[in-house]
Amino acid sequence: MKIAMLLSGGVDSSVSLALLKEQAFDVTAFYLKIWLEDELSFLGDCPWQEDLRYVQAVCEQLRVPLEIVSFQDEYNKLIVSYVIGETKAGRTPNPDVLCNKQIKFGAFLDYIGSSFDKVASGHYAQVEKYDTFYALKSAPDQIKDQTYFLSQLSQQQLAKVMFPIGAFDKQMVRVLAEKYDLPNKNRPDSQGICFLGKLKFKEFLAHHLGKNPGDIKEFETEKTIGKQDGFWFHTIGQRQGLKLSGGPWFVVSKDTEKNIVYVSRTYYEKDKKRNSFLVSNINWIPAPQKNEGYFVKMRHGSHRYVCMVMQINEETYKITLDADDQGIATGQFAVFYQGEYCVGGGVICCE
User: Fold this and answer.
1) Please, what is the angle between helix 11-22 and helix 170-179, to 10°?
2) 117-133: string of b/e by CB count within 10 Å (b at 16+)?
3) Catalytic annotation present for 46
4) CA neighbours within 13 Å on the CB side: how many for 16?
5) What is the pLDDT of residues 23-65, one digit of tens each?
6) Do residues 309 and 317 lie in contact, with contact meaning Cβ atoms separated by under 8 Å?
7) By CB count within 10 A, which of 60, 115, 150, 243 is most buried?
8) Are 19 and 164 in contact (CB under 8 A)?
9) What pTM did the predictor assign?
10) Which residue segment(s) compose the domain that 293 sits in?
11) Do 247 and 283 lie in a common domain?
């Protein structure tokens, strides 16, 4: 079997490559060049250069051929434009979800065509094949589980992907990195965007949207109590980074036309119910358990809610949680589970 392995320079994808090599697959590594020169220049030492050095060192040690493929235009057109458009509209986008669907397992699959049987990556997730469908199963490590970011993949995409470390937890991956003595065995996990390494989301927004000073107002009184650099740096439910005294304060809404961020100290009071929202255009993924109840996540992490899913019309569903969530924001992805299986996700269109 011929495998195309996506490498980012991190320990997860490197261990995945080592496992494939150990199993004697015919594997070629690929580094996707999606960064834009001007986008990263302000950081000083470009993070992609460090990523690529690790990728090259790992491939050299494991004796795996490496190809560097440019997807800069596709990334700019499909991901950057989406993030900027959603953010300017006051919504909360997730570039990693779209990057998996459109770039790693979209444009890249088109690029390799039928030359490879599978595309592998270092995601913490599992794919199971059944008679008529492919199911997306959570990783045992619920903190690292990345099915949230893979919830938009189609059956055609799931049929082509494989995740060599999907059944492991992070501790085991670190043990394997030591076993294989990989050059990046002690490298910290990246907290950046997609393949953009150390580039933080706030830096990404500052580069594309700049700063535009505006007011922070108390929601209940309309009194100006502070300043902010642009509503696009803030999301619903945010507490950190507001730099206000007399708190805690929480972001409750944004006026995108007037560039005003509204905050409140009574965000968690019992009369402020936040347990339902609408989701549109859900990508449903089949699962072996047909009659189990639903769980939902509104962000990456281990926490999920029991929920009821009620179809409103052909495209829209109403989701009701078993508890309040104080960070529900339009534009976020709501991702659904039945037991261990991710059964799809869609975009929150109305809080």
Assistant:
1) 60
2) ebbbbbbbbbbeeeeee
3) no
4) 32
5) 999 999 999 988 765 555 555 555 677 888 999 999 999 999 9
6) yes
7) 150
8) yes
9) 0.89
10) 276-350
11) no
